[in-house]
Amino acid sequence: MQNKYSIAIHTLGCKLNQAESEALARDLSQHDNYNIVSGFTADMFILNTCSVTHIADRKSRHMVRMLRKKNPSSLIAVTGCYAERAERDLADCGADVIIGNHAKISLPAILGGKLKAPPICIDSPPQGVKLARVRCFIKIQDGCRNLCSYCIVPFVRREVYSVDVDTVVAEIKARVKDGYKEAVLTGTEVGSYNSSGYGLKGLLERVLRETTIERLHLSSLQPGEMAADLLALWQNPRMLLHFHIALQSGSNTVLKRMGRRYDTGLYQKAVDTLRACIADASITTDVIVGFPGEGAGEFEESYAFCRKMKFAAVNVFSYSARPGTRAAKMPGRVSEKVKKERSLKMLELAARSAEEFGGRFTGQTRYVLWENKVKSGSGVYAGFTDNYIRTYTESGSDLANSITRVKLLAPANQISRPVLKASTRGNYGELWGELTA
């Protein structure tokens, strides 16, 4: 019998948070007295929070309260962006330990002497967290100094740095040994990567040359980073043909108030360059509606520009004032009613754009990296094509963590499979396919 403390890690927010949570889980799992588990019952919880909107803040507070109610004697440690800026709020919700982003890496050492619950008794090793050996998130950079008028990130991720290129390569090699097929390189400003004389292009070249990772994926880029010499690397079939390029608004006057470093002309030039180099690439984006002072005409400009760009997916956010940012003090607040109306209209456009993008590839055969079954026992698997279209198929064989050729047949929400009803409802652009040799 071995006494261990059970630790559950919950993550809210961006891919960078996911990368940091994965690193914490790996670090903690090396300690003999810790057992990483999933779910909402444990001796200790680590909550990695987001603060990009007021909704993200609310989710963080709700999670702490819920964990405390279910586990009165457990230790709750909170880290991440909300912990960086609202320590008092989290303490009031029931958090025991609150650690900002700057000290997140030190969590295992900090928590070592703070456990107040007795260790659980494990007669046999529990299932714990089943790491899906499909996609790992690799942090390559942190911090931002762009100071866009609406954004809290420069205030909660103050230290700007890039992870040493040798460290990145070594971590990807380790994840390959763990069985991962895809690595997502992430950070707050991935395109600004600069370490030991290597920019992003040099880093990608070394990863492709020195590791055997089967798919390499960037989390995001800025419009000004669509250089032809960088995009040439996507001729390598291991590079995932997906680019997330945040737009935020399709109105130049709004972009100027936001403090973005481009206008719609530069953005369109970046997209045109990308599509000229990589015709099948999926391009996704973020759009904010209801920014202070956004009039009806500016919203319509943004809507028309998004329609023109034919994005594969659009993440739509209603503007949320972040304390301490310039936009929080701007006049011309848009009412919640108007923001909701504009959000719904933009979401309808996003659904049509996704459906049109997915429809372009019906009848084609592409490579898909399969994840787990949609539902245990169903025989229906979900995965992503090499240009990031979520795809489903049915198989009697175990497809999890395999890459196969798939003929894309039809929109998934048109396929008569009961197991797909909940999975694909409203998710336009997803496809159904069949395995092919």
Can you offer a commentary on this structure?
Helices cover about 35% and strands about 25% of the residues. Residues about 115-130 have low confidence and may be disordered. Strands 1, 2, 3, 4, 5 and 6 form a six-stranded mixed sheet that branches. The chain has a five-stranded mixed barrel with strand order 17-18-19-21-20. A three-stranded parallel sheet has the order 7-10-13. Helix 7 packs parallel to helix 8 (about 200-210) and helix 12 runs parallel beside helix 13. The chain is of the alpha/beta class.
Mean pLDDT, nearest integer? Answer: 90
**In one word, what is the shape?**
globular
> Largest sheet at a glance?
6 strands, mixed
Rg over CA atoms: 22 Å
Distance between the termini: 49 Å
Structural class label: alpha/beta
Based on the coordinates given, report the CATH architecture of the largest domain.
3-Layer(aba) Sandwich
Our estimate of the beta-strand percent is: 15-25%
Number of self-contained structural domains: 4
The low-pLDDT segments are 116-131
Query: What is the strand tally?
Result: 21
CATH topology value of the largest domain:
Rossmann fold
Under CATH at level 1, the class of the largest domain stands as Alpha Beta
Q: Please, what is the CATH homologous superfamily of the largest domain?
A: Response regulator
Please work out how many helical segments DSSP would assign. Answer: 14
**What helical percentage do the residues reach?**
25-40%
